[in-house]
Design brief:
This protein is of the alpha/beta class. Helices cover 30% and strands 19% of the residues. The N terminus and C terminus are likely disordered.
Length: 323
C-alpha cells in the first residue's frame, strides 16, 4: 500500500481509503447547526472530516433515511425533501419546524423532572398531542442508553435509561433548526418512492441500514420493520434509476465485499476510516471503515466543514470504479 497525505490507495480494486483529520471548532462566523438528535450511524463525522465528498452546488437536497439529519444541517439547503420510515422521527422534525417553542417548553419540563423513575414513566406514556410526542421523542433520545432507537414487537420504545442527564444542551438552537426546516418537505415513506422523485439538479444523500449479504442472516432491525438484503438490492435498483435521470448521489454503506460488489458499476467508491462509537466505553471503541459511492459528480474542493475549512480527504484524487 502507498500512504501519501493521509490517503491509502488500494491498487487492485482502485478504491481510495480516506483518513482525513477532524478539524477544530474555530471560525465562529460559520453558521453551525448541530443535529438535535443522536442517532446510530449518524454522519456528523462525515461532514467534519470529509465535506469535500459533498457537491458544492445543487438545486434540491433529498434524503430518504433521515435519522439525525447531520448532512442536511451541514449543507443548509434552500429546498429539501426529507423522508424516513419512522413516523415518530418525522413528527419530531415537523413539530420543530412548525411549533418549536412548545417543544422547547415541554423539554424544559422534562429536564426539571428527569430521574430514573420519571424516565420509565415517560417511556411508557402514550402522548396524543403532536408537540408533546415530539418532546417525548427528543427527551428519550437524549437520556436513553447511547441514543439508541429500538422498539419491541408491539412498536413500543424499550431502550433503558442511559448515563446522560442533560435534556437541554448548549448546542440547542431550535429556532434556527425551525428556520432551516421551513423550506423542507417532510415525508413518512419507504425509500423507493422518494428516490423515484430524484432528477437532474438534485443531490441525494443515502445512508441506509448497514445490512450485508451475510450478516445476521441477511437482515437488521430498522425502526419497527426488517431491512433485508433484498431491500439493499431494491435500493441499488432505485439508485440506478435516479442516476439515469441525472441526479447527483452520495451513498454511505458498510465496507463489505457484498456491498462493494453490489455497487461495483454504479459509481466511484471511496473507503472512509473513522472511530466506531457503538461501544458504550470510549476506551473500547476501535477503528472501522465505511464505503462511500459517488455518482454523477466530481469530488473536489466542495463544501467546508463546520469550522469553515475545506476538508482534507480523498477528493483531490481521480478515482476509478473498482473491478
Amino acid at each position: 500500500m502507498d500512504i501519501k497525505s493521509g490517503v491509502e490507495v488500494l491498487k487492485q480494486s482502485e478504491i481510495v481509503v480516506a483518513q482525513g483529520p477532524n478539524s477544530g471548532r474555530e471560525g465562529a462566523e460559520y453558521d453551525v447547526v448541530v443535529p438535535f438528535l443522536k442517532w446510530a450511524g449518524g454522519k456528523r463525522w462525515l461532514t467534519t472530516a470529509h465535506p469535500e465528498l459533498l457537491p458544492a452546488k445543487f438545486d434540491r437536497y433529498i434524503e430518504p433515511f433521515l435519522g439525525s439529519g447531520a448532512v442536511f444541517f451541514h449543507l443548509k439547503p434552500k429546498k429539501a425533501l426529507l423522508a424516513d420510515y419512522n413516523a415518530e422521527l418525522i413528527n419530531a422534525y415537523e413539530q420543530l419546524k412548525s411549533n418549536w417553542r412548545r417543544v422547547a417548553q415541554a423539554l424544559v419540563r422534562h429536564q426539571r423532572n428527569h430521574s430514573e423513575e420519571y424516565y420509565y414513566r415517560v417511556r411508557a406514556c402514550k402522548r396524543r398531542v403532536d408537540h408533546e410526542k415530539a418532546a417525548q421523542f427528543i427527551y428519550l433520545n437524549r437520556v436513553c442508553w447511547n441514543g439508541l432507537y429500538r422498539v419491541n414487537l408491539r412498536g413500543e420504545f424499550n431502550v433503558p435509561i442511559g448515563t446522560k442527564t442533560s435534556v437541554l444542551l448548549p448546542t440547542d438552537n431550535f429556532q434556527r433548526t425551525s428556520e432551516l426546516l421551513k423550506s423542507s418537505r417532510l415525508v413518512v415513506s419507504d425509500f423507493e418512492p422518494i428516490l423515484d422523485r430524484a432528477n437532474a439538479g438534485d443531490f441525494v444523500f443515502i445512508d441506509p441500514p448497514y445490512v450485508t449479504r451475510h450478516n445476521l442472516n441477511g437482515f437488521v432491525k430498522y425502526n419497527d420493520k426488517l431491512f433485508l438484503w433484498t431491500d439493499q438490492e431494491r435500493l441499488c435498483s432505485a439508485i440506478e434509476r435516479a442516476s439515469s435521470r441525472g441526479a447527483m448521489i452520495l451513498i454511505t454503506n458498510a465496507n463489505h465485499e457484498s456491498i462493494r460488489a453490489l455497487y461495483r458499476r454504479v459509481g466511484k467508491q471511496v473507503i472512509l476510516r473513522r472511530q466506531s462509537v457503538l461501544a458504550a466505553d470510549s476506551a473500547n471503541r476501535s477503528e472501522t471503515t465505511e464505503v462511500a459511492v459517488i455518482i454523477n459528480y466530481e469530488i473536489g474542493r466542495g463544501q467546508k466543514n463546520d469550522s469553515g475549512r475545506f476538508g482534507q480527504g480523498p477528493a483531490r484524487r481521480s478515482i476509478s470504479n473498482p473491478v
